Amino acid sequence: AQSVTQLDSQVPVFEEAPVELRCNYSSSVSVYLFWYVQYPNQGLQLLLKYLSGSTLVESINGFEAEFNKSQTSFHLRKPSVHISDTAEYFCAVSASTFTDKLIFGTGTRLQVFP
Amino acid sequence: DAGITQSPRHKVTETGTPVTLRCHQTENHRYMYWYRQDPGHGLRLIHYSYGVKDTDKGEVSDGYSVSRSKTEDFLLTLESATSSQTSVYFCATLGGSGTEAFFGQGTRLTVV
Question: Which long-range contacts (CB under 8 A, 24 or more apart) does B12-17 make?
Fold first, then answer.
């Protein structure tokens, strides 16, 4: 079975500062890794995903995440955050089969201050 | 975006009453899921479906049942609501590539 650990429940940061949201996973098989974002009073949206190939994946709004198999991590980073990045971020994992279900971490609330 | 509609969006119900939440999708996705979201727990899988009449339990299935009689509809039923089932419930489908989940807007359920 797979599991996900997000160590930081809240991350406060000032606008234009860099940020890293940490995610570690546990699995006995190969995995797919995901970051989802949830804006207030909304459902979750896919931010980026790692399936295979390049270990560095990017989103269209400047976030990136790097798959590190040896450290079983998939940390999310952004070099300069905006107020609009304030949201809750969830790391998720599924086994590398089409039918497997997504397992989510407990989430990290990113609060960006002006 | 996948068209996923959850109804109702908000509901207050009394302890011991049955409650049914509906998820409707217009994308013809085969896989559908029900999650609950609680502070400090993230999203936890309740039940999921891999086709019409094919369902299975997730990690927190006690007290819940589901049905899927049509591809587009996935119903979650609380047989006898309890206060511990107060939560925000999300429906999700799995996109055609099999690697992206699409979520509904959520249903906020309060059991008093």
Answer: B12/B109, B12/B110, B12/B111, B12/B112, B13/B81, B13/B109, B13/B110, B13/B111, B13/B112, B14/B81, B14/B111, B14/B112, B15/B81, B15/B82, B15/B83, B15/B111, B15/B112, B16/B80, B16/B81, B17/B80, B17/B81
Cα B80 from Cα B62, distance rounded (Å): 11
pLDDT at B95: 78
Select from A34, A42, A103 the Cβ nearest to the Cβ of B105.
Answer: A42
Tell whether B14 lies on the interface with A, counting CB pairs under 8 A: no
A7 in contact with B at a CB cutoff of 8 Å? no
- Rounded CA separation B106/A43 (Å): 6
pLDDT digits (tens, 9 = 90+) for A14-69: 999 999 999 999 988 888 899 999 998 888 999 999 888 888 888 888 999 999 99
For residue A84, give the DSSP letter.
G
B81-98 pLDDT tens trace: 999 999 999 999 987 677
Q: Which of B52, B50, B80 is nearest to B65 (CA)?
A: B80
With beta carbons less than 8 A apart as the criterion, state whether A101 and A94 touch: yes
Peptide bond connecting B8 to the previous residue in cis, omega within 30 degrees of 0: yes
B48 and A101 within 8 Å at the Cβ level: the answer is yes
